[in-house]
# Entry
Amino acid sequence: MDNIYEPQIVKIAKIEELSPTVKLFRLEKIDGKFEKNEDKLVFRPGQFALVGQIGYGESPLGPLSSPYEDEYIEVAVRKTGTVTNRLHSLKKGDEITLRGPYGNGFPLEFMEDKDIVCATGGCGIPPIAALVEYIIKNREKFGRVYVLYGARSPEELLMKDKMKEWEKKGVKIILTIDRPDPKWKGPVGFVTDLVKEIDINEANAVATMCGPGPMMDAIEKILRPLGISDKRIFVSMERKMQCGVGKCQHCTTGKKYVCTDGPVFNYDEIENNFD
Amino acid sequence: MKKTKELTIGEEKLEDFLKSVGQEFALFDVRNDYYKGGVPFKKYFFPQKQKIFSKNGGSGIVAAEPPKKFVLFGLDLPDLEALTYFDEIMKTPREDFFYFQNRNRAVVIGLIRERIDAAPGGDAVFQDMGGGRYRVWLNTEKGGDFIKKYKKFFHESGGGGEEENAPQIPENKSLSEWSRSMRALVLDPELLAKAVEWSRDHPIWDELGKRCLGCGICTYVCPLCHCFSIEDSVGLSGECSRCRKWDACTLPGFAKIAGGHNFRPSIKERYYNWFYHKFVRGYNEYGKSQCVGCGRCKKFCPASIDIKKVLETILKDYKKATAES
# Structure
C-alpha cells in the first residue's frame, strides 16, 4: 500500500527574492530528476504541490517553472503563516519536503487552437507562469496569448524579467497596479479600458485565472466585456488544504473538492456554490 | 437450497470467549461505549491524534508503525454499517495509508439484536437470537479464521430443522424510536440531498446558526464524520513530528487560510456545511447519506439540536415548495 501522505525530500538549489515578501525556491531531488507523466510533463500547469517541512507543516503551492523541466521545480512563497515563515528562514542546500503534483490543472487540450487570456494578480502568477511556459513550448498550437497581471504596487509585480522573455516569444503582457503610484505609468486596476488593448476572436477564446483577489473585477470588467462566456473561464481556486488527496474536507466548495476536482474549475460550475 | 451450517454461541460462553481473546490480543469491548463517552469505534482506526511522521536529524522521514493486532468487540448495527461506510470513504479516491494500517491489524466483531439478511460489516457478527443464544455470521475470511481458533466456545449445528426452532427476533429490538425513524429517513438519500440543497436560504439555518455553539461535539461522536487536520510540531529534543488529528467543520478555523481569510466565517455557514456534507456532498460521492441514525449527535449536543427534526422541517417545506411549483 502506497503511503499517500509520505512526502519526497528535495533540496533547495536556489533562492531568489522576487519581492520584499516573496521568495522563489528552486527545488531539486536528492538523486536524479523529477518523474514525468504520460504527457512528458513533470506536472500539468495549474496543478499544485504541498511543500513544507516535518515539524512545520505543508503549504499548497503552484509550481511556476516550465512543466517540461525535470531537473528542478520552482515555487514562489509569500511569507504569510507558519510554514511560509519557516521556508523563508531556510538557506540554499537545506532540505524540505514535497508532495504531489495534485489536482487537475488547466484544460490544455481544450485550450488548443484558441486565443488565450490569462488574468491574475499578485501571488497568483505561478500557475499562469507554468501555463505560459507550456504555451511557449507549443506555441503553434495556440492563438493569440495575453497575460493580464495586476499587483498592489510596482514592487509586488513578480517575475518581470521572465515576462520580457515571454514577450519575445509571442505573449502579450499587460501589467496593472491597484492604486496610482508616481513610479507607475501603466494602467491602474483591472479596468474596462484594458478591453481595448486585447484583440482576440471572442468566439474562440478561453480565459484562465488564478484568484481570488482580482477575479471578480477581471471577470466583470474585462472577460465578460470581451465576450468570453463563463463556461470558457477557468479559475484556479484557493482554499485551506491539509491532505491534498480528497479526504480531510478542508478545501470543499459545494459538492467539489478543490484538491482533487480542482484547483482549476470552470467558472460556470462553481459560481453558485454556497461557499 | 442447501442450508449452510449454523454457528452459535451461548450467553454463558460469551464472556469466557472474550476473556480468552483478551489474553491473547488487545481487546476493546465497545458494547457500552454509546452510553459512556459517545466517542465511537472510529477512534481505533482513525485516532483522535496520531503521530504519522517523525524526523530527528538526517534526511530520513519515519512513518508511524502499525499497531499490534487487536480485537474490537460489540459494534451495534448502526456502527457496523458506519464501519463499512468508513472503509469506503477511506478507500476513496485513494487508500488512506494510516487508516488501513490500523484497520488491517484488527478483527472486528459486531453484536446486534436486529434481523438481518447479511452481515452489515465487520469480520463477524453475533446476533442475539433471544433465549441466551447468539447466531454467528462470518463476514470475512479473517473473521472465519479468527472464530475457528476459538471453536471450543461455539456450537456448530448441521443445518436444517434448526431454523424453525429459532426464537423470532423482534425487528430492531434494540434501536430507539428516534433511531428507527432517522434510519427510515436516510432510506431516501436522494430526497434528502435535494431538500438540503434546496434549503440553503431556509430560515432554519439562521435559527441554527444562533443556537449551535460551534463546539464540534456532533462531529466527534459521529461514527462517520472524518474531517482531520495535519498538525506539525517540534519537540524540546529537536524531534520534528507530524500528527493527524480530528478536526470539525463546525469549528471557527476550519476553512481559514494563512493570511487570515476565512471561507466560512459564521456558525450558520459552518453548520449548513456539516449538513451539506452529510446529505448532499456525501450522497453525491457515495450514493448514500453520511448518517446511520445512531443518535449520538442528538444525545451529546449541548444545544439539544435534533438533526431529525431539522431534516423533517426542511423536508416538509421542500415538499410544499416543489408541490407548488
